[in-house]
Amino acid sequence: MSKRKKGLLIVFEGTDGTGKSTQLNLLTNVLQDRGIPVISTCEPTNGRYGQEIRALYTDRKKVSLEEELDLFIADRKEHVETILKPALANGKTILCDRYYLSTIAYQGAAGLDPAYILSRNSFAPEPDLALLFHAPVQTGVKRITENRGETLNDFEKEEYLQKVALQFEQMNFPFIHRIDASRSIHTIHQDILNLIQPLLESL
Ligand code: ADP
Ligand code: TYD
């Protein structure tokens, strides 16, 4: 992965319904209140490739697995060039909902080689911190269907998510910090605040 410095890149990773977006929003508010220049963003993005990816949610078989990977990579390249790199160069703190660990886990679980997926991401700045949310897959699925009132899309089927969870479990990048996402929203938030304090001081 490419090295660069100045701002901070903090990514939120894990299976669906583990509370990534909830915690990202809470943290964004705290940083904004403290006057820290922060950008909150997500992948897939809302750009052209992100929209193509969302069109797959209801019928993933429309494209081959390689084509699906190409779309996630194209979306990330655009995101890196237009949002992430400029923000980092300006010393901003970026909070990003999903990044290349999701590609390794989801497209890896679908059958692609995790090492190959990582090699396709060599253009992407390495995160300073990846908060890897883990909770039983059923907990996440229940939160999605009951709390958010949504049905499961093609990326969220339980059997597949078990394989995705296993991929996440097997990762050992030094920038990963695992978060027990079965706890309360408040407890997790406090945990994250404590964790990032030293990083913010280093800015
Ligand atoms: P993700 O972004 O990981 O898919 P969300 O943040 O959208 O997950 O959370 C999924 C649902 O679960 C939301 O309805 C949210 O309010 C709820 N939720 C998030 N964190 C928790 C938690 N720690 N305990 C209980 N419910 C939670
Ligand atoms: P999600 O965070 O749920 O976004 P949305 O708000 O659009 O539902 O991500 C969408 C799905 O895309 C999620 O199930 C994980 C999957 N995904 C991949 O398969 N590979 C990737 O590289 C990324 C970033 C996401």
Q: Could you give a short description of this structure?
A:
The protein is of the alpha/beta class. The protein has one domain (8-202): Rossmann fold, CATH 3.40.50.300. The chain contains eight helices and five strands.
What does this structure look like?
The chain has 203 residues and is α/β, with parallel strands linked by helices. It has one domain: P-loop containing nucleotide triphosphate hydrolases (Rossmann fold, 3-Layer(aba) Sandwich). The chain is built from 8 helices and 5 strands; from the N terminus they run E-H-E-H-H-E-H-H-E-H-H-E-H. It has helices spanning 20-33, 48-54, 65-89, 100-109, 114-119, 137-147, 158-170, 185-201; strands at residues 8-14, 38-42, 93-97, 129-134, 176-180. Strands 2-3-1-4-5 form a 5-stranded parallel β-sheet, sandwiched between helices. The longest helix is centred in the middle third of the chain and has 25 residues, at 65-89. It is globular, with a radius of gyration of 16 Å. The model has no long low-confidence stretch (mean pLDDT 94). It binds adenosine-5'-diphosphate and thymidine-5'-diphosphate (TYD).
